[in-house]
Amino acid sequence: MGDIARAAEGLDYMIQNNLTVEVHHFNSAINACSKADPPSKSAATFLFKQLCDRDLNTVTYTALVRAHRLAKLEDLSSLRKQMQIRGVQTDRVFAENYVRSLLRGRSIPYAPPRVVALLAETSEDRLREVREAIRDFKRMDCMTALCRPVERALS
């Protein structure tokens, strides 16, 4: 479970005491937002905005998309677009978490009939974004064992 208050207190302490705050400290706090029940999109976004003046990396975006797994599609897809604009490289961990978040954080089954059933419960807008993301991830050689069954079911 993510302890957002404790993560924020830790960052605040570091800043107030002029300690060096690195990107991974923010990543840990954003990760706490993604592990909270329910995930805190607003806290993660606040931390992300604080971090924007620093070097962002794939770990930051991965934690953010996990925190956005219950968010509106526009909020989630804008993160991937920002990542592309900033030139942050996609990796397999991000790809897997992005697809899972597009499917609202649900487990992706490996059995084809169950994948089809899962996708049948997904809005057409989200499916369109899943298709586009998977096409990009495939081009970047970032497909995972979790992404492949979704790709096959969408074909």
Radius of gyration: 16 Å
Number of domains: 2
Measured distance between first and last alpha carbons: 36 Å
Structural class: mainly alpha
Low-confidence stretches: none
The amount of beta strand, in percent, is under 5%
Q: What is the N-to-C order of secondary-structure elements (H for helix, E for strand)?
A: HHHHHHHHH
**How many strands, what sense, and barrel or not for the largest sheet?**
none
Beta strands, count: 0
Task: Look at the structure and give the mean pLDDT.
Answer: 89
Helix content: 55-70%
Large-scale geometry: elongated
What is the count of helical runs? 9
Overview of the molecule:
The protein is elongated. It folds into 2 domains: 1-76, no CATH class; 90-155, no CATH class. α1 packs antiparallel against α2 (23-35) and α4 runs antiparallel to α5 (73-85). The chain contains 9 helices and no strands. The longest helix has 16 residues, at 124-139. The chain starts with a helix and ends with a helix. The mean pLDDT is 89. The protein has helices at residues 4-16, 23-35, 41-51, 58-67, 73-85, 92-102, 112-120, 124-139, 147-154. The protein has 155 residues and is an all-alpha fold.
